[in-house]
Amino acid sequence: MTKIAVLVGSLRKESYTRKVAKNVIDLFPSGYDPEIIPIDDLPLYNQDFDDENTLPEEWTTFREKMKQCDAVLFVTPEYNRSVPGILKNAIDVGSRPMADSVWKKKPAGIISNSPKNLSGFGANHHLRQSLVFLDMPIVQQPEVYLANITTLLDENGKINNESTIQFLQTFVDTFIDLIGRYEKA
Ligand code: FNR
């Protein structure tokens, strides 16, 4: 079973981003186990905790969980043209100690969304910048920017049109192909 960690960049109860993540989870075939990993309990990153080995239990649990995953799917809204702090904090927590980063060589996919026209482009690319530094191979094409997300979801949080579903399926298939290439490497 290939385990995919799904990290969602919003804590909002009715988050569109989480709804998108759940739709995408449903598009993975059997043999893949995508799971939303909670990041809301992670204390803010503080280098002292690593340097003095006084690690919050939540960090250790998160790092262990992430190490067991084969790949990571990031689904994010945009905050102030960038990555929401909650998601950046999880990335920072997982990145240290540097030699033991949970991200290194882990295939990644990025989906951004927004209720507005710009589709979270800024968040998507700031996230991409961090993942390049963290040495994660990333799905390059198709890039997934979901603009006007409220028009794409029905009242049950399901994507309401076949062309978006097909597009996301193409993205998932490409992500799986990338994961397969790294599993074999
Ligand atoms: C936003 N929002 C927003 N939207 C956008 O397209 N670009 C942006 O830069 C921002 N900036 C921003 C900052 C902060 C602090 C908040 C709270 C919101 C609006 C945002 O896209 C909207 O609230 C979404 O609904 C957030 O995603 P979830 O929570 O629905 O997943």
TrEMBL record:
The protein's name in its UniProt record: ACP phosphodiesterase
GO molecular function: FMN binding; oxidoreductase activity
Domain of life of the organism encoding this protein: Bacteria
SUPFAM superfamilies to which the protein is assigned, alphabetical: Flavoproteins
Coiled coil: none
GO cellular component, one term: cytosol
Gene3D superfamilies: 3.40.50.360
PANTHER family found in the cross-reference section: CHROMATE REDUCTASE, NAD(P)H-DEPENDENT FMN REDUCTASE LOT6
Domain NADPH-dependent FMN reductase-like: 2-149
Signal sequence interval, chain numbering: none
